[in-house]
Amino acid sequence: MIGRNKVELIGYLGHDPEYYTDGPNNRATFSVATSESYLKKNGEPVEVTYWHDIVCWGVVADRVSRFLRRGCLVMVEGKLTYWEMEKEGFGKVKRASIKVDSFILLKDPKGVTNTREEQVPTQPIQGDDLFKNKGQVNQQPVINNNINDDMDYSDSEDDLPF
User: Fold this and answer.
1) Which of 22, 34, 129, 131 could form a disulfide with 11 if both were Cys (CB 3.0 to 4.6 A apart)?
2) At residue 79, does pLDDT exceed 90?
3) Against a cut of 0.70, is the pTM above it?
4) Contact 68, 30 (CB under 8 A)
């Protein structure tokens, strides 16, 4: 069976990222709003907004906490993850969130320019790539364009109808 778990979202941050330092693992969480619009049968326009829970770890979480804030337009790439928690009165509750591998800041709210020594990321930022430029200021992040595809697609005999 061939499958891929990949999510790409473009949307606005609903609140400033919450940053946690849990020992060696840093974590940042925030929500991203995406919206879609359509017309009802009677021609009335409808706009629906969806909120997505986002979590990132390590160096990506460090960068998120520094560069992103409420109102930023951001593109995040990652994978869909599920986790369970025990909620009083409800029992086990299953939640979905997106574990971010990289992000791009598309638009800063109010057009604010970056005054920090580091540049705001305008290309995908991935955890492993950030260590290549460690200690160097005002360098663009190194982008890893290698596709990690270990699947052998030759002579695939599946029962898909197409």
Assistant:
1) 34
2) yes
3) no
4) yes
Q: What is the residue extent of each domain of the chain?
A: 7-133
For residue 16, the one-letter residue type is: D
Alpha-helical segments (H) within the chain: 58-67
CA–CA distance from 134 to each of 7, 64, 147 (Å)? Answer: 28, 17, 24
Give the contacts of 22 (CB within 8 A, at least 6 positions apart).
none
Given the DSSP bridges, would you call strands 45-57 and 91-107 parallel, antiparallel or unpaired?
parallel
pLDDT tens digits, one per residue of 94-143: 889 999 999 999 988 766 544 443 445 555 555 544 444 444 444 444 44
Q: How far apart are CA 7 and CA 12, in angstroms?
A: 16
